[in-house]
Specification:
The structure is a single chain. The chain is built from 16 helices and no strands. It is mostly helical and 412 residues long. Helix 6 packs across helix 14 and helix 15 packs antiparallel against helix 16.
């Protein structure tokens, strides 16, 4: 079956960068202080700011990138941001994207580790709840917009719906990967376009040599650091080893890292269970990546290291493996993604991504935020403000955060 697929010239389609690290840093700093709601919501914020407003990439290329990062271990939303920074402004752009998106929440959580408990009482609890309602509105907007662009025909709409069933009944990271695999196969069979030459496929400025080095470093750190740390008294190396292994084994986003980090820091006696859970609760209220929970843990530990050094080591270690694997995959993505058959498969994968986001809109985003009719009304208002009034997400964050505080004070 042949489907007509609209194609547009793609930014960076031939490996050329079109922005500056400063531009990337500014864009991602804005996202770093306003992107509440966890990794699925982050993808919605990225889409609004970088696809819709700044037009760095097209809707289709953005979904391609999301699908790739869903396959790889590590923090998917941070990997998407890292890749967008790389595409826009080269290696310095990738570094700028990571730093700007991560720094705000990391600094707040380090402050929390030192006792800056700003989330107690009705005001703090109301604010947290209001930010959860923001996530409902942002993810709903992303699902709505992506469905219109990436599921324009019956075949892709069916792929999206079946993907919702897959991730609903197999509610694990494996379910997400299975849904994307289904989308790839269905797209290959149903969505071929003979006129698609693949010339518009975006190509990242990463050589095969750089990819090989990146993968070698990933394996060396994964295998070699535990061996060295076991026979060394270097406490920083032990912390790096624990957080690096946790980051290397995470499929499915930030929440999956929780049991791995608990094993590394609580079971070893580096931190009490009470302090661990308190930090995890605070991390839920932060903008930016949930992996910055590692910043809190590194700062809060009294042994083997703690404070600012512990936070720095833990933060870099937990993010590093996901970025190394992403760099290792990009040149092969460049080659495979330019083939017409692969483009058809990616169209199916894009439709599956819409289904995955749709399922996530219900659980965990909706189920953790909409607890009353008033919550539904506020979330719906936020959605309308984003979709029809075209307000910037940060304005909706302020409005719904205030609404959450008001509901907590008035309704209890």
């Amino acid at each position: 079956m042949t489907n007509e697929v609209k194609r547009e010239p793609q930014e960076g389609s031939h490996g050329k960068t079109e922005g500056t690290p400063g531009e990337v840093f500014s864009a991602f700093l804005k996202l770093g202080v306003t992107s509440f709601g966890g990794p699925i919501a982050h993808l919605g914020y990225f889409r609004d700011e970088l696809v819709q407003r700044r037009q760095w990439v097209s809707e289709e290329r953005y979904a391609d990138l999301v699908a790739l990062c869903q396959f790889l271990p590590g923090p998917a939303s941070s990997q998407v941001g890292f890749a967008l920074g790389l595409l826009r402004a080269g290696p310095l752009g990738a570094l700028a994207a990571f730093t700007a998106f991560t720094l705000p929440s990391a600094l707040i959580l380090i402050a929390f580790a030192y006792g800056a408990d700003a989330f107690g009482g009705p005001v703090g609890l109301g604010l947290i709840h209001g930010l959860k309602l923001v996530a409902v509105a942002v993810v709903a907007q992303a699902v709505w917009g992506m469905a219109q662009n990436l599921c324009p025909d019956k075949e892709r709409a069916a792929i999206a719906v079946i993907s919702v069933f897959v991730v609903t009944f197999l509610a694990t990271a494996g379910g997400q990967i299975l849904a994307i695999i289904f989308g790839v196969v269905a797209g290959f069979v149903l969505l071929r376009d003979p006129s698609d030459s693949g010339e518009s496929h975006m190509r990242f400025p990463v050589s095969v040599t750089a990819a090989g080095i990146s993968f070698a470093v990933f394996l060396l750190l994964l295998i070699g650091v535990p061996l060295v740390a076991g026979g060394s008294s270097d406490t920083a190396l032990s912390v790096f080893d624990g957080f690096y292994r946790a980051g290397a084994l995470v499929f499915g986003g930030g929440h999956v890292v929780l049991p791995l980090l608990q094993t590394e820091v609580v079971s070893t006696g580096w931190l009490s269970s009470e302090s661990f859970l308190a930090g995890y609760g605070a991390a839920q209220a932060m903008p930016g990546p949930l992996f910055t929970f590692a910043s809190y843990l590194g700062a809060a530990m009294s042994e083997p290291i703690g404070g600012l050094l512990g936070a720095l080591v833990a933060t870099l270690a937990v993010f590093l493996p996901g970025f190394l694997l992403l760099i290792a995959a990009l040149p092969f993505w460049n080659t495979i993604g330019a083939r017409p058959d692969a483009r058809a498969a990616m169209r199916g994968a894009n439709a599956a991504v819409v289904g995955i986001l749709g399922a996530a809109l219900y659980n965990p985003v909706w189920t953790s935020a909409v607890l009353s009719p008033a919550d539904f009304a506020v979330a719906l208002a936020g959605f309308i403000l984003l979709v029809r009034w075209k307000l910037a997400p940060w304005i909706v964050v302020v409005l719904l955060g205030g609404a959450g505080i008001a509901m907590k004070l008035l309704l209890g």
